[in-house]
Amino acid sequence: MGMRSGESREGAPGGPPGPRASRTPRMLVLAAGAQAAEAVGLGVAIASNVIDSASGRVSTAANAIGFIVFEVIIAVGVAWIAWGVAHMRPWSRTPAVMTQAFTVLIAIWLLQAQRYAWGVPALLLAVAALAGLFAPGSLRALNRPADAPETGGPQETQERQESRKTATPPVNRRS
Known about the structure:
The structure is a single chain. With 175 residues, the protein is an all-alpha fold. It has a domain at 25-143. The protein is 67% helix and 0% strand. It contains seven helices and no strands. Helix 3 (61-86) crosses helix 4 (93-112) and helix 4 runs antiparallel to helix 5. It is extended and about 75 Å long. The termini are far apart.
């Protein structure tokens, strides 16, 4: 009925962490957190642009609306990548690294424009995320298994094997 005092459930408060929590490398958590913080930063920039647009401080409303829509799409994509990294999805590594590369470039541009309030945090988050993504434990966690096919799943691999068995060898016809 109840648990004895010496027993504890896996993942329960006071008990040992669950299997998922014990396998996630700390540096990967850092990378996911930095990526998520960038998505939140984009949200702050979106809110600032919406306020500017609503107050009439923008040159043209049509450009502002288009830019805000573009920012929302980017913020959702960055948040989705952060989710993938946090859940150790192999597909998320390349988009996360590319996002950080672009963030470094944008941070440098912001620093050159003397926008230190935006450039310094962007640069620090990008460096932290790259360090987290390239840590050995993170690389292992985000690697695909060696026997996994490039595309599709086990069903696709099985279909390939069956098609090889039934395929007839090409005939060499010389005229």
